[in-house]
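Could you help me review a protein record that somebody else here produced? What it holds is a sequence and that sequence's fold in token form. I need someone to confirm that the token line plausibly describes how this chain folds. Take the sequence as given and treat only the tokens as open to question. This is what I was given:
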Amino acid sequence: MNFLRLLFFVIGVSVAFVATFAGATTVRFAFSVPLQCNVETVYGAATETGVAFVVNERCNNDRGYALYLDDASDTVLAVRYNGQTVEAIRGGRTLLARSRRARDRRSRIEIDVKDGVRVTEAVIVIAPAI
């Protein structure tokens, strides 16, 4: 982000420079930043009741994003996102969190499962707001 601020500052200085010497000439710059949203697992560990994941969630969409646990099975008893209980949706996407702005943060996701069930992976999906 500092690079973009620096780039904008340099372009702004260039525009002022051109406008000063060119008189009535108007120079406009337009550029776009590609939308990038991703979630990556920092680590996962078994707990007494299931599994806990620490993830980095990043999205540069100024409208925000939503974070989901994909396809919670019948073996899922409870889901928590940063300590807050979330209702698990069986066979669909469970909404873990919604942000109304761009964000780069680290979060903890805990999944409790039935006795005897071992969780080997969880699919976490990040979707930019439209």
User: Anything to note?
Assistant: Residues 2-22 form the longest helix (21 residues). The two ends are 22 Å apart (CA to CA). The mean pLDDT is 81.
